[in-house]
């Protein structure tokens, strides 16, 4: 243990020690420092004499550098932003004959699988409501359901639940008419049957076609209730139809320009919503050049953003874009009035209906 401790102390002393040399040895071993680069630079550089006081300075031919700004060529295109303002469908589309037949088949299948109708649970015996129920069930040949025709899920022909071709039972208008007729009260409070001319008529559903559809007024929003409508405008009788658009200012983004153009074109009497700030379509118009390759007319790059109208109506009375007319058209109608290249550039953002 003692030898080990002494060895450790010796190693520590060697590590902590510094290299020592006497002054005489240090002077004899010191090498001279030669800086050849400084001597060469001094020989090659001329000696500059300081100017004598009172002597004029020699003229210099160096003029101050003038900053040269880069010259950007004029763009051949104008950047524009527009809005495709839409009115969403208000009704679901009318079912096809196959879909209507399938829905009726599902109703009849549900009648076969459901428990029998318990009249005593819903109607008290010998009441006007119970007497009215008896009259209506007798007309339906004992069928409790009101929208499945004369199909009896408890009879011997319960298996025959498929609809025959050409039958009007599955027609939505026929189903709505049957439900409206069944809603009429036919028995009075005294238990007497009410004549047909004295019965209180039940208001049926409104028709799918409105007065605007019948009149062909394309400026109204209450038309084509099951389709998406798009706002288009034009500048003059001979001008083409287009979506509202305008030049983008240097201090604006695309969505800000679209909102400004909509207000300047169709007024502010509309409750609208800008769906996003990313364009959904764009159209590029090539520039026109002269014979000497100089620019005659600049091209256009129009970026369209999507918007929704919630309420209100377009008003061109005080518009600043020179617009004279507007319409709310469906996708099929836009294909007929828009220029071919214009429609091809925006058709992919339009809904199917």
Notable characteristics:
7-stranded mixed sheet; Large ribosomal subunit protein mL46; two-stranded antiparallel sheet; 353 residues; ribonucleoprotein; structural constituent of ribosome; single chain; 15% strand; 9 strands; alpha+beta; Ribosomal_mL46
Notes on the structure:
There is one protein chain. The chain is of the alpha+beta class and 353 residues long. The strands form two sheets. Strands 1, 2, 3, 4, 5, 8 and 9 form a seven-stranded mixed sheet that branches. The longest helix is centred in the N-terminal third of the chain and has 17 residues.
Task: Give the DSSP E fraction (strand runs of 2 or more residues).
Answer: 15-25%
Question: How many strand units?
Answer: 9
- Low-pLDDT segments, ≥5 res: none
Shape: elongated
Number of helices: 11
Category from helices, strands and their pairing = alpha+beta
Largest sheet: 7 strands, mixed
The helix content, as a percent range, equals 25-40%
Between the first and last Cα atoms, what is the distance in angstroms?
A: 99 Å
Radius of gyration: 46 Å
Q: Could you spell the SSE succession in H and E letters?
A: HHHEHHHHHEEHEEEEEEHH
Give the rounded overall mean pLDDT: 85
How is the secondary structure organized here?
Layout: H1 2-16, H2 23-29, H3 36-44, E1 77-87, H4 97-113, H5 119-122, H6 128-139, H7 172-183, H8 211-215, E2 229-234, E3 245-247, H9 254-266, E4 270-274, E5 281-285, E6 288-289, E7 295-297, E8 299-312, E9 325-329, H10 331-337, H11 340-346
Parallel strand pairs: 1-8
Antiparallel strand pairs: 1-2, 1-3, 2-9, 4-8, 5-8, 6-7
InterPro entries: NUDIX_hydrolase-like_dom_sf, NUDIX_hydrolase_dom, Ribosomal_mL46, Ribosomal_mL46_N, Ribosomal_mL46_NUDIX
Biased composition (Pro residues): 48-61
Family: Belongs to the mitochondrion-specific ribosomal protein mL46 family.
């Amino acid at each position: 243990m003692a030898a080990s401790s002494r060895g450790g102390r010796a190693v520590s002393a060697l590590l902590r020690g510094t290299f020592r040399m006497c002054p005489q040895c240090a002077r004899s071993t010191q090498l001279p420092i030669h800086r050849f680069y400084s001597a060469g630079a001094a020989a090659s550089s001329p000696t500059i004499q300081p100017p004598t006081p009172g002597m004029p300075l020699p003229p210099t031919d160096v003029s101050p550098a003038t900053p040269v700004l880069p010259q950007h060529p004029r763009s051949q295109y104008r950047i524009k932003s527009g809005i495709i303002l839409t009115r969403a469908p208000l009704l679901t589309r009318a079912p096809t004959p196959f879909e209507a037949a399938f829905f009726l088949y599902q109703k009849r299948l549900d009648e076969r699988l459901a428990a029998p109708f318990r009249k005593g649970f819903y109607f008290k015996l010998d009441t006007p409501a119970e007497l009215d129920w008896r009259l209506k069930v007798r007309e339906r040949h004992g069928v409790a359901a009101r929208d499945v025709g004369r199909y009896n899920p408890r009879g011997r022909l319960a298996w025959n639940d498929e609809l025959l071709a050409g039958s009007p039972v599955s027609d939505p208008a026929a189903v709505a008419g049957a439900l409206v007729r069944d809603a009429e009260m036919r028995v009075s409070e005294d238990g007497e049957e009410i004549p047909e001319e004295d019965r209180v008529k039940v208001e049926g559903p409104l028709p799918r076609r409105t007065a605007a559809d019948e009149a062909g007024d394309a400026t109204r929003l209450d038309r084509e209730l099951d389709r998406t409508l798009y706002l288009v405008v034009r500048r003059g009788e001979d001008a083409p139809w287009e979506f509202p658009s305008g030049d983008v200012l240097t201090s604006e983004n695309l969505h800000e320009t679209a909102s400004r153009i909509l207000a300047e074109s169709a007024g502010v009497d509309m409750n609208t919503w800008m769906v996003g700030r990313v364009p959904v379509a764009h159209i590029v118009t090539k520039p026109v050049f002269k014979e000497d390759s100089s620019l005659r007319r600049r091209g256009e790059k129009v970026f369209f953003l999507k918007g929704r109208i919630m309420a209100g109506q377009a008003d061109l009375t005080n518009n600043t874009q020179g617009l004279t007319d507007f319409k709310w058209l469906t996708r099929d109608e836009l294909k007929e009035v828009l220029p071919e290249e214009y429609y091809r550039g925006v058709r992919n953002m339009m809904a199917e209906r």
